[in-house]
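As the work plan foresaw, the team has encoded backbone shapes as discrete tokens. One protein thus recorded appears below exactly as we store it.

:::
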Amino acid sequence: MERIYPIGIQNFEKIRRDGYIYVDKTRFVYQLAKTGSYYFLSRPRRFGKSLLISTLQAYFEGKKDLFKGLAIEQLEKDWTVYPVLHLDLNARNYEDENSLLEELNKHLEIWEQQYGSPYGDRAPEERFFHVIRLAHEKTGQRVVILVDEYDKPMLQAIENDELQRVYRNQLKPFYGVLKSMDGYIKLAFLTGVTKFGKVSVFSDLNNLTDLSMNPNYVEICGMTEQEIHQYFETDIHTLAEKEKLSYEETCELLKTNYDGYHFTENSVGIYNPFSLLNTFFSMRPDSYWFATGTPSYLVYLLQRYHYDLWYLDKEETTSDVLDSIDSLSKNPIPVIYQSGYLTIKGYDKRFKMYSLGFPNQEVKEGFFKYLLPHYASVSETDTTFNIQKFVNEVEQGDYDSFLSRLQTFFCNIPYELVTDLEKHYQNVLFIVSSLMGFYVDAEFHTNRGRVDLILKTSGYIYIMEFKLDGTVEEAIRQIEEKGYAEPFAHDPRKLIKLAVNFSSETRNIAEWEVV
């Protein structure tokens, strides 16, 4: 029987009626319905949040036939029908002060017609109040409110402080209605990529239970290794044949590329569902999640606050920082973590500190490929080509071509982009070495005024010392005095020691010399 993969399908009813593969998450739906009323869940894009919202809607609308054979069929006995208000803010781009109001108005008009509300001339929050009241009065049941991608307007305005303030002031009273209408509401469930804190759209709705780092709901979106073997075992075997790999090698390939998301400490790893489904559909591993687009606000935040990229894979922080985004903060890490580009790698229970890192190879390689054109003078389409050339050059011992190519990366960088020249050249070197690290062994170390980079290929070992406004003689002396070459004294590979000097005047590599 033909297997149909629900790639991009976010409607639960369509998946069930049309025979798509469905990974059963309905035990969580039942748990949510029976144990609380107000919830928030943050997960990265393309992780199944919209499908979860749709599943909740089908459940609360009493569509029992859709749940045949699923876990909830054995749990739920009543199948009570509730009025459901589903607000999807993912349906448009938010570009000006009217965009959000227009989107709210679109949903309010539908609900007002459905429940006969005559208050269409009032403010959005007042109209929402009356819709909830009338839905309850007309059906005799409390209302279920589902909000998908609540934060999209805020995220799209993250580069525009004034527009973000406007959206925040529009959303605060609107969501605040949920708290004032508590007696009329059965359940409210909000999803998003991020959680904005402090001066926040949530400050009027402080009764939300945040499931984002709750260990009981780690598996609510995405796929576990157990689920992959339960639902996609035949696909793994087929992929192994296509890729000419063993079954074990194929499992390891999927794990390396798509596993590794941890939403709380000591939790099971979660696989990216979008990339997995695309891999099984195409029977070819690729960077599917990354190909759907990376938000421009990530680069904006990194560059605006002059973030040292070397720390990306070594960040340590607290749950308070991870848990919310303060619009006044200069720390880009929470939004990068919540967007799915970093994940929890370790936890120090004594000090309650989280260690962060990239979840898997797809994210790490894709992220650096995306960053390079924003930091160096290279186009997006030429990134892979240049990395390939870099690798070929060091593998062939052609360090002059390698450094000449590196010089082109520093040409024509706008002055306004480089307020901290040293940090900028360190960031470019780190991106390049990280991308080369997928093909050769690369070790990058940084300190004030200098960088050292060690590249190892099958035939060569390179020790590179970079100085800013120094001299190649100083760099050579650093290599010798620090004994950088000593660990490789008995290595049969050819050792090349490179001293490189950057000039702040030319904003580029000024000279290099081989020891």
Remarks:
- The first strand starts at residue 38 and ends at 42.
- DSSP finds 19 helices and 15 strands in the chain.
